[in-house]
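FW: tagging you since you asked about this chain on Friday. Here's the raw sequence from the shared folder, copied in full. Didn't touch anything.
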Amino acid sequence: TTPSTEPKRLALIGARGYTGSELVNLVSGHPHLELSHVSSRQLAGRALDGYKKSALNYSNLSVEDVERMEKDGEVDAWVLALPNGAAKPFVDAIDRGKGKGVVVDLSADYRFEDGWTYGLPGARSSV
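HL: got it, structure written out here
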């Protein structure tokens, strides 16, 4: 099967920190990914710097916002760049939304949970 080249919409929750800013840079240069939302409590309302594809402002997405957005299919993938222990309410909201959004949790919250994959795509182990 040929991979899709249609742009995928990403929402980044926890965009203020180092991991979030690095992800903004990576997505900015990726031909098939685009940021649709960047969320940070501290930076809500400010312009997102460093993103070259469109002008975006930070928002402060609530758990309720995330659930509604998932129900409405507004996002293809959710990236959670939150401190350890902060992802669960957002993951639960995405689950309640019952959409098709993929979740990438960059914290350690689900590292050892059944049903979650931990690791790098395409990474090989050397024995």
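FW: Residues 123-127 have pLDDT under 50 and may be disordered.
HL: agreed, and The chain is about 25% helix and 20% strand.
FW: great, closing this out.
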